[in-house]
Design a protein that fits this description.
single chain, alpha/beta, Rossmann fold, 2 domains, seven-stranded mixed beta sheet, five-stranded parallel beta sheet, 43% helix
Amino acid sequence: MLYMGRRDFIALLGVTAVWPLTAGAQQPTMPVIGYLSGRGPSDAPHLVTAFQRGLSEVGFVDGQNVTIEYRWALGQYDRLPEMALDLARKPVSVLVATGGEPSALAAKAATSTIPIVFNVGGDPVKLGLVASDSRPGGNATGINLLTETMEPKRVGILHDLLPQAPTIAALVNPKFPPAEMQSKQIQEAAQMLGLQTQVHNASTAAEIDPALQLMAERNIRAVIVLANPFFDTQRSKLIALAARHKLPTIYGFREYAVDGGLMSYGIDLPEVLRQQGLYAGRILKGARPTELPVMQPTKFDLVINLKTARMLSLGVPEKVLALADEVIE
């Protein structure tokens, strides 16, 4: 039989009395970052990795001293406002809006107090997100991707590649807020080069195939897929259909060319997400959005997939190859 002395019994009572208080005491909670994206998790793992890398450079690691709550709209922009409100109600410590204007505007509408770190393709001042690039004011700051200004440059590159093509077709998502401006810029740039334009709309997966089929039936020889998160969720489908219909196509982000698209011209998107991670981490450490100026990318890459060019029986002029920052053999 186990014998317990009076002194031991009293000591046990002391431990028993203290334990529930210790166990029930509130432990410090980790800050929570809300990550709101117009894209989907399957097409953006490299972007999540880049974002987390930026956070780690400021000392935050997901699951260790910060928690990240992800919300993915899968290219369905009408889902973003409720997702943003859901994150704001938690509430999160920082709301990171990725995937352009729809995410940023939804975040801004959801909260006027929680710090927001956005990326957008257009002017954030005109969008009402900040007072100025240098002194954002309010609760938001981020990165201007300059996506809208890239579309005319893609027209010029496509024309240099295919100088005999009289018409350039643009695949547009009409439900993407900047779509009208993107289309206008494409048409103006083409007109300056003496080219005709055709605008083909697709805002659902089911509309993509008929749009590209129609381009093929009209003997289009030059295509631009305008940048927007919905098309990013359909990247594999777009690349496969362009190959099937023999449509030389230029895209906005390197990931398209790496996955088999003919060409891409644009920013280093993972670097943008890394910068958003840095800003989010700095805010968690006490910085205010108004102290963090809106950034702009300074590097733009032309990527050419020569394997795809050969598959399309397309010769790439030397002057175009000379401009390439990366050539995929």
